[in-house]
Design a protein that fits this description.
Layout (H helix, E strand, L loop, with lengths): L1 H15 L2 H10 L3 E5 L5 E4 L2 H5 L13 H4 L3 H6 L13 H12 L3 E11 L5 E15 L2 E10 L1 H16 L1
Antiparallel strand pairs: 1-2, 1-5, 3-4, 4-5
Length: 167
């Protein structure tokens, strides 16, 4: 049993050394993966970011602050930088990312509901599930933020609960 496990992990490790392979994996998972620096600036991301969050078609979002890259409604409506709006001090995404960076805390599958702007310029509420953790690469410390849009699942559950109450 241990030999099989070792073989499987070893063969995946060999594939993982390929940058092309890792890029294909990241762009084919359904979660949005953001790599942030200590200032909450986007250093890398997978294609799912533009599917879930992008509020502009074909925008260049690399090196933007996190809230600006994901179309945070508060940042857009207040016309302030991410980190300087009236809601930033209570933003769970921001607080969790900083907690991971500063305290090495792992945040796992937390749920938030927040407004974002879509590509049509419309404000919409999204239910998000997110996880954060820090890691080092080439002597630099980063935050990985993984986000799933669970809006449809939450809406479906709420509708089911409403129907069950009316029975």
């Amino acid at each position: 049993m241990d030999a099989k496990k070792t073989m499987a992990n070893h063969s995946f490790d060999m594939l993982a050394t390929s940058g092309e392979f890792m890029q294909m994996i990241l762009n084919n998972i359904t979660s949005c993966v953001l790599l942030l620096d200590k200032d909450m600036k986007l250093q890398a991301f997978n294609d799912v970011l533009k599917t879930i969050f992008s509020n502009k078609a074909d925008e260049d979002i690399l090196y933007l602050l996190c809230g600006e890259a994901i179309g945070c409604a508060y940042q857009i409506e207040e016309a302030k930088d991410c980190g300087k709006t009236s809601k930033c001090c209570t933003c769970e995404l921001r607080l969790s990312a900083f907690d991971s960076y500063l305290n090495n805390t792992i945040v796992y599958k937390q749920h938030i509901q927040r407004p974002f702007f879509n590509k049509k310029g419309e404000r919409e509420m999204k239910d998000l599930q997110f996880s954060t953790r820090h890691f080092y690469f080439r002597n630099e410390k980063y935050i990985i933020l993984i986000i799933d849009d669970i809006t449809k699942r939450i809406t479906s559950v709420e509708k089911e609960q409403t129907l069950n109450k009316s029975d």
